[in-house]
Design brief:
The complex is a heterodimer of chains A (277) and B (370).
Chain A: E1 2-7, E2 10-12, E3 18-20, E4 25-27, E5 33-35, H1 37-53, E6 55-62, H2 68-77, E7 81-85, H3 95-113, E8 118-122, H4 133-141, E9 144-156, E10 161-168, E11 171-178, E12 181-185, H5 197-205, E13 209-211, E14 231-237, E15 247-248, H6 253-266, H7 270-274
Helix pairs in contact in A: 2-5, 3-4
Chain B: H1 2-7, E1 31-35, E2 37-38, E3 41-42, H2 44-60, E4 64-70, H3 74-82, E5 87-92, H4 101-115, E6 119-123, H5 126-138, E7 143-147, E8 149-152, E9 158-164, E10 169-175, E11 181-185, E12 202-205, E13 218-224, E14 236-240, H6 250-260, E15 263-266, H7 268-272, E16 293-297, H8 303-306, E17 314-319, E18 332-335, H9 338-359
Parallel strand pairs in B: 1-4, 1-6, 4-5, 5-12, 6-11, 7-11, 14-15, 14-16, 16-17, 17-18
Antiparallel strand pairs in B: 2-3, 8-9, 9-10
Helix pairs in contact in B: 4-5, 6-9
Classes of the chains: A alpha/beta (277), B alpha/beta (370).
Bound molecules: flavin-adenine dinucleotide (FAD) (2 copies).
């Protein structure tokens, strides 16, 4: 049976984050925590493969204990098992340290439940927003990566081949690769399902499996958490809006205003730069 | 216990834990820009990054390098010199025609380990992020995503700043521990140098690092998106928002854009309402543009829109609400009903051209679109 691992992250709903105008800092209080939007599409794709081919779907997140709630949501949608990789030592990780721990967790999931055929991630998160963790995991596991997938055209479990459509700025690329692969999901990939009633019942009782540093005997402790993260946030600030002296153009009716605007634009260097005569 | 041990697979050591080779970071010098191309055509972000790379390299008194990977791309190596590079590494081989992560990243790793740049920059495009994420993990080193400001300090540290939390804040990110310091950078933010054919530089051929038969992924086809607007390279953009009230009014904007040789852009509100395609969207989740002239019509000026267009040379805002935030960044503001103002502007331009053509029939004054 196929074994699919979905990596999900619990994130603050960034649309709800406000800046405190007095202190110029983020107001995080009361901001709801949600499963990263794209990760639900990654999970849905895994569940579709499960429906069609039969598969075991393992969901993994690295995060604080409160991320249990996000894992329960995945169980309610139909994931088989959910793992919370959680330890104070993992806190403060950048993408390099995150991909290390997630790769170790995926290897451990292989040891527990069999070889992994596909890892599914979201395109990027709503908070860190880097899109670097997927490629980082693929690189560490030494498997092929197919990023920005908007469609899985087919999956041949006999030949162990997959064909996907990658959505790029200038078009769509059809790519064929051999399993195992890591894919990162776009929103166009599918529509995440709602939880089923049995799913909700199972989720209500479900306790995620928790792995701490002690569950990874060979972990290099200098490569995790803040210490294992080469990137340092040296400062954050709220950018000053650009200062412009706006000239308001007024006139007697739209024609006069339009004429005045054109006169202003022709008086700048635009005619020369744009070849107006 | 024994059973448990049996379950654990034999594995190769994981990559990305220790740097390979030379870790005397002081021997790392210069700025390397990885050029992105498709079918022999470079992405404009690559030239923009060479422009910014030049500014950083001059400050560091170090060389600016470029890496061109592909098939039949030697002309791009020369272009990279015209856009500011002192040295260009060129890996030109048939199996590199299409981008694929492994063969491309192996070439980058080879160049980085051999020529030791202190800074590596790529576009924060889909391909750039795919490639940068793989390379930074392999090396390993720190990677800042989607930077919109790039500078260096006295200690030669790269100060890469990126927007966070829906553009509400900026964060400056450093990497002190490893070299090179890596960043991907947003398209449309940095300015390319003027192309200068008199510039000279060195082109160094680099061999591919994987045999064709070792490459297991295959690009079956590329379906180019046709009829997409090219906002990034447009000199004039006429953008509309929710104030247009429906899809029909975009016709008025198109008329104005046609007179100016420009293209039509939009706010996310207009896109989300289905009035115009997503490829027209400007802002955080759309294109970042730096045209010479930008019209914001019926657009309120939310920060997520403004970050995508504030670098336009001239901004004209038309809005019926005198308090609309868009006026804060506009050079020229018109308070009024767009349905009256926009056609009047189009007309005024037509009249001006007609008058000009009547006076000088030899030279029709329609703008040259390049
Ligand atoms: C404002 C801000 C800016 C940052 N900038 C940088 C930066 O420039 N460079 C850098 O290296 N780090 C940066 N970080 C840190 C980074 O957010 C964390 O490393 C984070 O753990 C993972 O990165 P991401 O959120 O960008 O994930 P992405 O790479 O965007 O996530 C892609 C996918 O990977 C999976 N994934 C990511 N994190 C987890 C997780 N914890 N558990 C399970 N699956 C996961 C999900 O499937 C997700 O959809 C930044 C953080 C913040 C808050
Ligand atoms: C995570 C995130 C990402 C986002 N990304 C983007 C992005 O990439 N791009 C983007 O644009 N937005 C983005 N947004 C949305 C952004 O916050 C705003 O909601 C959006 O820009 C508003 O669009 P608008 O100005 O067209 O609409 P509105 O804010 O509704 O403004 C309409 C304006 O039209 C004026 N108006 C109405 N009728 C007339 C008339 N007859 N004549 C003249 N003026 C008139 C009104 O006075 C008003 O100022 C994002 C938001 C989030 C949270």
């Amino acid at each position: 049976m196929l074994h699919l691992v979905v990596c999900i992250k619990q994130v603050p709903d960034s649309r709800e984050i406000r800046i405190d105008p007095k202190t110029n800092t983020l107001v995080r209080e009361g901001v709801p925590a949600i499963v990263n939007y794209f990760d639900l599409h990654a999970l849905e794709e895994a569940l579709r493969i499960k429906d069609e081919h039969g598969a075991r779907v393992t969901v993994i997140t690295m995060g604080p204990p409160s991320a249990e709630k996000a894992l329960r949501q995945c169980i309610s949608m139909g994931a088989d098992e959910a793992v919370l990789v959680s330890d104070r030592a993992f806190a403060g990780a950048d993408t390099l340290a995150t991909s290390y721990v997630l790769a170790l967790a995926i290897q451990k999931a292989e040891d527990e439940w069999g070889p992994v055929d596909m890892v599914l991630c979201g395109k990027q998160t709503l908070d860190g927003d880097t899109g670097q963790v997927g490629p980082g995991i693929a690189c560490r596991l030494d498997i092929e990566q197919l990023t920005y997938v908007e469609k899985v055209e087919y999956l041949d479990t006999e030949k162990r081949e997959i064909v996907v459509h990658r959505h790029l700025e200038d078009g769509v690329e059809r790519v064929k690769a051999k399993l195992p692969v890591l894919i990162t999901a776009l929103a166009e990939l599918n529509r995440p399902r709602r939880a089923s009633l049995p799913g909700l019942l199972r989720a209500a009782r479900y306790r995620p499996i928790v792995w701490t540093t002690n569950d990874f005997p060979n972990i290099d402790r200098s490569k995790i958490g803040l210490r294992g993260s080469p990137t340092i946030v040296s400062k954050t600030w709220v950018p000053e809006p650009k200062q412009v002296n706006t000239e308001f153009i007024e006139g007697d009716g739209p024609e006069a205003v339009a004429q005045a605007l054109i006169d202003r634009l022709y008086a700048t260097d635009l005619p020369q730069k744009l070849g107006w005569t | 216990m024994a059973e448990k041990e049996q379950k654990e697979r034999k594995r190769k050591p994981m990559v990305g834990l220790q740097p390979e080779g030379d870790v005397d970071w002081s021997s790392y010098r210069g700025v390397l820009v990885v050029v992105e191309q498709r079918a022999g055509k470079a992405k404009s972000v690559s030239w923009q990054l060479l422009g910014q790379g030049r500014r950083l390299a001059d400050k560091l008194e170090a060389p600016l390098m470029a890496l061109v990977i592909g098939s039949n791309v030697s002309h791009l190596a020369r272009e990279a010199i015209y856009y500011g590079a002192d040295r260009v590494f060129l890996c030109d081989s048939p199996e590199l025609e299409n981008y694929r992560t492994r063969p491309y990243s192996r070439v980058c790793l080879h160049v980085i380990r051999t020529y030791k740049p202190e800074i590596v920059l790529m576009g924060a495009t889909y391909t750039g992020r795919d490639l940068a994420g793989a390379i930074a993990t392999h090396l390993p080193t720190g990677l800042t995503a989607d930077s919109t400001q790039l500078d260096v300090d006295d200690e030669r540290l790269l100060l890469a700043s990126r927007p966070a939390f829906s553009e509400k804040m900026l964060a400056t990110i450093l990497c002190k521990q490893f070299k090179p310091q890596m960043a991907t950078a947003r398209a449309g933010v940095f300015e390319a140098l003027p192309r200068d054919e008199s510039r000279t530089g060195e082109i160094i051929p680099v061999p591919p690092q994987m045999k064709p038969e070792e490459i297991t992924t295959e690009v079956l086809e590329f379906l180019e998106a046709t009829g997409k607007v090219n906002l990034e390279d447009a000199d004039v953009i006429v953008a509309g928002g929710r104030g247009l009230g429906g899809p029909g009014a975009f016709r008025l904007l198109q008329d104005l854009a046609d007179e100016l040789g420009g293209v039509v852009g939009a706010s996310r509100a207009a896109v989300d309402l289905g009035w115009i395609g997503h490829d027209h969207q400007i802002g955080q989740t759309g294109a970042t543009v730096r045209p010479k002239l930008y019209f914001a019509i019926g657009i309120s000026g939310a920060i997520q829109h403004v970050v995508g267009m504030q670098n336009a040379t001239y901004i004209v805002a038309i809005n019926k609400d005198p308090e609309a935030p868009i006026f804060k960044i506009a050079n020229y503001g018109i308070v009024g009903d767009l349905f009256q103002i926009v056609p009047a502007i189009t007309n005024a331009i037509r009249q001006r051209k007609a008058a000009k053509d009547a006076a000088d029939p030899q030279q029709p004054s329609t703008p040259q679109t390049v």
